[in-house]
Amino acid sequence: MVTPINDETAQRIFKAMEEQSNVLKKMGSCLNKLEEAKLKKATHVEIPNDKDGEGWDKRDKPITKGINNLRSSPWKPWP
C-alpha cells in the first residue's frame, strides 16, 4: 500500500526540482557560450616562406629520394 505524501514534502520536492531545472538551464547557456567562443576563436597557422625548407625538421620534409628510380623501373611481381 502506498502512503500519501503530505503537502510540505511535495512542496520541498517541487522546489528542489525547480532549482535543479534552473541550474541545468544555466549550464546549457554556459555551454552554448563556450561553443560560440570556440567557433569564433581563430586558429594560428604558421607557413614558412623559405623555399629550401630551412628551419624544418628532416621528418617534416617529403621523401623524394628514389621516387624517380621507382617510376623508371619496370614492374616486378613478388616472388
| Low-confidence sequence ranges | none
Cα distance spanning the termini? 82 Å
Q: In percent, how helical is the residue content?
A: 40-55%
Mean pLDDT: 76
Query: In oligomeric terms, what are we looking at?
Result: single chain
Taking Cα atoms only, what radius of gyration do you get, to the nearest Å? 33 Å
Order of helices and strands: HH
Q: What's the count of strands? A: 0
Helical stretch count? 2
Structural class: mainly alpha
The 3D shape can be described as elongated
Proportion of residues in extended strands:
under 5%
The biggest beta sheet reads: none
Task: Please tell me about this protein's structure.
The chain is an all-alpha fold and 79 residues long. It has a domain at 1-40. It is built from two helices and no strands. The longest helix has 34 residues, at 7-40. The model has no long low-confidence stretch (mean pLDDT 76).
